Structure formats: structure tokens, C-alpha cells
């Protein structure tokens, strides 16, 4: 499809003039007065049109006697692939480190300024370096506890520091105490309530850490069954009147999708799931994204199925808007709370934007 856009020399020159990055993998151009060839998006000063020659590939340009530009490096991998590879190496450095690394230390390791590294890291992973390290540490703790490791050694091995914040930080990471997590969530206390919304009934559940579930359904029995399936060992109890403010805020967010929920959220998921969920929360109301584009957005273009699974594991309906993800052809795909409800949510958001 992209090749048809740049199949004429006029179209290619237009791409060069606008420095269209989408054309970078479609062709290169050589400048006969300098003997150099570049990508269409090269930031160097534009040559005169009559001095430009177009080639399908870097190999073709080199065969014609041109040498690659040192600025845009058209003979190397596409720039976005270079960026992804650089961040992949940064993540490997983080994984190998037993202690948290500062932004300055990471940037120095990658030979890039802290400001640029921070922006690049977030654009590729969907998370800041600090958030990524925190989520990775939390995942190591979850894995250790799941495999039966004792609580204190698991905390140390995961990278939690000693001191007064030792257990407090671990509790926040797990959404419950480490002991409760190790026993499968036993003794975890949840309170919940149900309310009407424009797509049926809605259940909102809160753990001591924050809102841990926003579920959709047709009746209260169905919703309570969903909650029991998600938290089978937790102590679940209907909330009293003091929960009404929380319900109102969640319903307001459902009614007006642009409203940011001003309540603490209790995310419980793997590092990859949290990356996907953060990317989902960045999608504006009224817009959609394909599973393929979402996978690329979190730096894992080949992990389309894993992205779909992360969407399916989302427990915070609408707050984490997984309903905004469509198939590549724009058609609706599966939704945890029903395709018809997904269509209704998208239609509601489209009306809000018009």
C-alpha cells in the first residue's frame, strides 16, 4: 500500500520536501552534486530538484556510485528499529542490574542525553524508565511468591530495599500483603457496589489499595459471579452508603469518557500487561487503534496475540479502554463484556465527539 503512494517521482519528491518518515522504507534519494544518498526524512538541507535521483534501495544507490549520508544513515536499519533496539538494550541493562538505576546512569550507559532517553524510552515502551523498573521489580516479586519463595527472601531478591518502606512498598506492588499474595489472596478484603449505566449494570470493587475492578453485565448475579471468579479467595462484601461517591465518579467517567477518574487504581498484572494498559489509557475518547498498532506502540510489533490477551485480562472496564481496540480491517473483535456492548460504547463516544 505504501509503495503505491510513492510510485511516481513527483510523489517521492513531495515526500522528500516534507521529510515524510513513512517513506523511509520505500526509497532513497541520491544527490549528484555531493555523491551522497539519504532517506526521505533526512534533516539535512534540501538539494535542488534537478540534482536528485531516486532509488528503490540503499543497495541500488550504492551500486550507482552514491555513498550513505552520515546523518540519516540510510544504509542501516530504519530509524524506528534503531530506537527500539536501543531501548531493548536499555531494558536488558535494567534486567541485569540488582539495584534500581537512575535516569542519568541509564542515559550514560546508552550514550544519550537523559532528556532524550526519557522521551525515547516512554515512546517505545509506553512507560517511563522509573515506572518500568518498578513494574519489573513487582513482577519478580510476584513470580517468586507464586513459586513458593518465603516472603522476606523474595522481597530482597526482587530488589526491594530495606528499611521502613520495605513491606509498605511490597504491599502497594501486590495490591495486598505479600503473605496474602503467597496464599492466593486469602484474607484480602474487597467491598463493592452495583449501579446502572448506559450499557447495563456496572459493578465497582475496591481493595485497600484502590479500585481493583469495574465490571459490566446485565444483572447483579452475573456481576457478582464475575467478581468471585476474579478474586475467589478474597472476602467480598457489599459496600454501605459511604461508597456512593465512588460509584458516582466511576459512572461519570463511563458517561463522559474524557473524564479522568480521580481515584486510586489497583492495577494487578504483569509488566507487559501494565504496558498495554498504560498505552490503552493514552487513546483519546472517540478514537480507535488496531491490535497491530497497539503492539507496535508498546515496542512489541510481533506480540499481537499477547496484546489481545492483555486487553482480555483487563479488569477495569472503560477506565482502561480496551474497547477502543479493533481488528486491522476496522471490524469489531472480541470483548470481555460482549461485542454488542463494545459497539455501544464506541457509538456513545463517537456521538460525544460530534
Automatic annotation (TrEMBL):
SMART domains: HTH_ARAC. DNA binds at residues 34, 43, 45, 67. The keyword Transcription applies. GO terms for biological process: DNA alkylation repair; methylation. The keyword Transmembrane helix does not apply. NCBIfam families: ogt (TIGR00589), PRK15435.1 (NF011964). This is Regulatory protein of adaptive response. It comes from Atlantibacter subterraneus.
Amino acid at each position: 500500500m505504501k509503495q503505491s503512494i510513492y510510485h511516481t517521482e513527483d510523489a517521492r519528491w513531495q515526500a522528500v520536501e516534507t521529510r515524510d518518515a513513512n517513506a523511509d522504507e520505500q526509497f532513497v534519494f541520491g544527490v549528484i552534486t555531493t555523491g551522497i544518498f539519504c532517506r526521505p526524512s533526512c534533516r539535512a538541507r534540501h538539494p535542488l530538484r534537478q540534482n536528485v535521483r531516486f532509488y528503490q534501495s540503499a543497495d541500488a544507490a550504492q551500486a550507482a556510485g552514491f555513498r550513505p549520508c552520515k546523518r540519516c544513515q540510510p544504509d542501516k536499519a530504519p530509524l524506528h528499529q534503531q530506537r527500539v533496539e536501543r531501548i531493548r538494550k536499555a531494558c536488558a541493562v535494567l534486567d541485569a542490574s540488582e539495584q534500581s538505576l537512575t535516569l542519568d546512569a541509564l542515559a550514560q550507559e546508552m550514550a544519550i542525553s537523559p532528556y532524550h532517553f526519557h522521551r525515547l524510552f516512554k515512546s517505545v515502551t509506553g512507560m517511563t524508565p522509573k515506572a518500568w523498573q518498578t513494574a519489573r521489580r513487582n513482577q519478580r516479586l510476584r513470580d517468586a511468591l507464586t513459586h513458593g519463595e518465603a516472603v522476606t527472601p523474595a522481597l530482597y531478591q526482587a530488589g526491594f530495599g530495606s528499611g521502613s518502606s520495605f513491606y509498605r512498598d511490597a504491599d502497594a506492588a501486590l495490591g495486598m500483603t505479600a503473605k496474602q499474595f503467597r496464599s492466593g489472596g486469602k484474607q484480602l478484603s474487597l467491598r463493592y457496589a452495583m449501579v446502572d449505566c448506559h450499557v447495563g449494570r456496572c459493578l465497582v470493587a475496591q481493595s485497600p489499595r484502590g479500585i481493583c475492578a469495574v465490571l459490566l453485565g446485565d444483572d447483579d448475579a452475573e456481576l457478582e459471579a464475575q467478581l468471585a471468579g476474579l478474586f475467589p479467595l478474597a472476602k467480598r462484601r457489599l459496600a454501605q452508603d459511604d461508597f456512593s461517591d465512588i460509584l458516582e465518579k466511576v459512572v461519570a467517567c463511563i458517561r463522559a469518557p474524557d473524564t479522568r477518574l480521580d481515584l486510586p487504581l489497583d492495577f494487578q498484572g504483569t509488566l507487559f500487561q501494565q504496558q498495554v494498559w498504560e498505552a490503552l489509557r493514552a487513546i483519546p475518547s472517540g478514537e480507535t487503534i488496531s491490535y497491530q498498532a497497539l503492539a507496535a506502540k508498546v515496542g512489541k510489533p510481533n506480540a499481537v496475540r499477547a496484546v489481545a490477551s492483555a486487553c482480555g485480562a483487563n479488569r477495569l472496564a472503560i477506565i482502561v479502554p480496551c474497547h477502543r481496540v479493533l481488528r486491522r480491517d476496522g471490524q469489531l473483535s472480541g470483548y470481555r463484556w460482549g461485542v454488542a456492548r463494545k459497539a455501544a460504547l464506541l457509538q456513545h463516544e463517537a456521538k460525544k465527539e460530534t
